[in-house]
Amino acid sequence: MFSEKLLMRLKHAVSLCALTGAGISAESGVPTFRGKDGLWEKHRVEDLATFSALKKDPELFWKFYGWRRKLLKDVQPNLGHYALVDIERMYEDFTLITQNVDNLHHLAGNRKVLEIHGNIMRTRCSECGTVIDDPNDYSGVLPKCEKCSGLQRPDVVLFGENLDEKLLRKAQESSAGCEIFFSIGTSAVVEPAASLPYLAKANGAYIVEINAEETPLSSHADETIIGQAGKILPQLVMTIERIR
User: Fold this and answer.
1) Where in the chain is the domain with CATH 3.40.50.1220?
2) For the residues 120-144, what does the mean pLDDT come to?
3) What is the pTM of this model?
4) Which fold has domain 4-30+77-117+163-243?
5) Residues designated as active site
6) Strands, DSSP E only, in the chain?
């Protein structure tokens, strides 16, 4: 399954970087928040998941995000998530970059996680910026900041917002500085995350794609492994244990 070139790199590497997308969470049964028609309760998600929607109709905004939080409460990490925890323990320099907001990497036990799209289980004040761990769904109650009484929001990147510059810079630095870069369960089309494997490759990293199907990255990766991360990553961990 894994090439000899990859095995040699894994044996001697110090610095690894992994980018994860919706594919790894789908294996845990993370449900979609859109209906078959692309709507949620007759509303376009793109209209709800915006800062202007929070200001215009905070009750509807929080009804939507509270519902999404409820959906995630019973979802657990899968073997792919836990394998990334093992890899973090094996390498001196390992960075996990995720596009997912579902908190599953933290639940699994990863500590070096850059959540570039945020975390839906945290709440941030829209006025003073205070962030707290807070999985409450706020059914019928609008959350207010304890510090300034400002209206709170989930700590996620909404449509039309830019990513946190410091977090993105860390992700870019980790990608540029790693020896092996894994792209796992991501469509490889959503920017700026989609550019990270190319940044890694430009700086000499070996690029490994693990995905259920080929993506635009496939023809540029050093190797692409088609399949489920929940099956492939545990095998990767066992292989690393054998060769190191």
Assistant:
1) 4-30+77-117+163-243
2) 90
3) 0.92
4) Rossmann fold (3.40.50)
5) 117
6) 15-20, 39-40, 43-44, 93-98, 113-115, 118-125, 131-133, 152-156, 180-184, 206-211, 223-226
